[in-house]
């Protein structure tokens, strides 16, 4: 059924409670990246890297619950994060953050496209563009055309299938193989994975917290869900979502441990192939595939819908004469096709490592962390130097990135943004103090 109004297209027909809120957030944050990057974190940084990956996301969701409650108290009614930013920022700062939001959202869609590409290569013996075309077409139809009502209609099934996979498949493996043989195999073939005092591990965890906080705090879908929830249930909903979310990366990491404990591997594709050989029961193999498809499509669909809603409500509408609700919905559908096509082409012609791709945008999220906190916890409109500080920090971090490690550039980006904010705030206070003194004189 088509949405009757644009607000219904963006927010659905009803205000959601805690149960549907948790399902909606899990459908957004249990992603293709969660399935593939959490095992890559474990392989690259050891078992504690996989555990750290899980903790980073859970802590970020828990911390967002405090931001969410403050936002809803100050701004109880809104459709998107753009509505909130428009109320808190002057025009220059508003448009700076809107542009960054669009860029980061396209990047998230591209990451999910890469996860879909990996899955298609693993599952289908056909040209890559065939599997990807059907994936993007499905996501555009159900999320771009169906709106939030259809997204929530799929969300329950997607989350249930993911839960079934992360609980039943590891249980099946460990009952079949036993825990001791797995531990002995890791000690024999991959002893480095049991080491905790590695410099790279701590660098990864600290940088991951900066990236995770920035990504969760500046995510279109999370903000959109925030405005749909009952105000008194915001903090508990986000906190419980973080607590439940931690199960998924830990379970996916344990799945891949079951593959590599018997020998070596080359890349994520070889691990997936090994997993297929390990899952000899058709039911569990189908369950794993269903889980992976659900995770990728739910995230891509939620992010596509949020991005389209932002563009229509906060970019196109202010630049055009007043449109009817049906005209806005038609624009949203057309935008969904265009964005889906753009990401489809980009995915076909560019194939980076998923974990590297995730952290490549880390400079942006790290630089945004301090400004978004200042915007949320300040009173009234904030000065333009706050979003500008993020832009300066992002540019500076990418300039120095070739000369330092990826984690150091992320730290530098966050520190540079915070430093610029502090300096500008002190100068503003001095300027205001001097103006008061001068007026008295």
From TrEMBL:
Catalyzed reaction equations: L-proline(in) + Na(+)(in) = L-proline(out) + Na(+)(out)
Sequence similarity: Belongs to the sodium:solute symporter (SSF) (TC 2.A.21) family.
GO MF, one example: symporter activity
UniProt lineage: Bacteria, Bacillati, Bacillota, Bacilli, Bacillales
The keyword Transport belongs to this UniProt entry's keyword annotation: yes
Entry annotated with the keyword Hydrolase: no
Main location: membrane
GO biological process: sodium ion transport
Organism name: Peribacillus castrilensis
Subcellular location: Cell membrane
Membrane topology of this protein: Multi-pass membrane protein
Protein name: Transporter
């Amino acid at each position: 059924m088509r949405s009757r109004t644009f607000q219904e297209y963006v927010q659905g027909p009803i205000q959601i409670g805690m149960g549907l809120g948790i399902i909606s957030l899990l459908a957004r944050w249990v992603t293709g990246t969660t399935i593939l990057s959490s095992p890559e974190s474990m392989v690259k940084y050891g078992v504690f890297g996989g555990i750290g990956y899980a903790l980073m996301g859970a802590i970020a969701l828990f911390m967002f619950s405090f931001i969410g409650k403050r936002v809803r108290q100050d701004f109880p009614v809104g459709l998107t994060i753009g509505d909130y930013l428009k109320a808190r920022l002057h025009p220059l700062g508003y448009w700076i953050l809107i542009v960054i939001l669009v860029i980061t959202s396209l990047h998230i869609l591209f990451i999910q496209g890469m996860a879909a590409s990996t899955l298609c290569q693993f599952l289908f013996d056909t040209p890559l563009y065939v599997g990807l075309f059907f994936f993007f077409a499905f996501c555009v139809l159900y999320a771009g055309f169906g709106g939030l009502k259809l997204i929530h209609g799929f969300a329950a099934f997607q989350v249930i299938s993911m839960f079934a996979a992360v609980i039943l498949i590891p249980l099946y493996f460990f009952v079949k193989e036993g825990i001791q043989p797995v531990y002995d195999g890791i000690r024999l073939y991959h002893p480095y994975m049991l080491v905790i005092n590695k410099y790279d591990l701590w660098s990864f965890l600290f940088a991951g917290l900066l990236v995770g906080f920035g990504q969760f705090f500046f995510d279109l879908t999370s903000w959109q869900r925030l405005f749909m929830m009952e105000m008194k249930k915001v903090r508990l909903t986000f906190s419980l979502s973080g607590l439940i979310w931690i199960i998924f990366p830990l379970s996916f990491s344990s799945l891949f441990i079951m593959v590599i404990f018997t020998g070596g591997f080359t890349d994520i594709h070889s691990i997936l192939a090994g997993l297929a050989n390990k899952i000899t029961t058709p039911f569990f193999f189908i369950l794993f595939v269903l889980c992976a498809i659900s995770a990728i499509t739910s995230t891509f669909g939620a992010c596509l819908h949020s991005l389209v809603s932002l563009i229509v409500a906060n970019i196109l509408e202010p630049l055009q004469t007043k449109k009817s609700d049906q005209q806005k919905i038609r624009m949203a559908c057309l935008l969904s096709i265009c964005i889906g096509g753009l990401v489809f082409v980009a995915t076909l012609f560019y194939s980076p490592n998923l974990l590297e791709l995730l952290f490549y945008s880390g400079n942006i999220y790290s630089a945004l962390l301090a400004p978004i906190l200042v915007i949320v916890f300040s009173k009234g409109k904030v000065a333009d130097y706050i979003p500008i500080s993020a832009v300066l920090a992002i540019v500076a971090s990418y300039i120095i990135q070739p000369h330092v490690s990826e984690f150091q550039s992320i730290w530098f980006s966050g520190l540079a943004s915070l430093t610029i904010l502090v300096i500008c705030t002190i100068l503003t206070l001095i300027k205001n103090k001097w103006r008061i003194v001068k007026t008295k004189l």
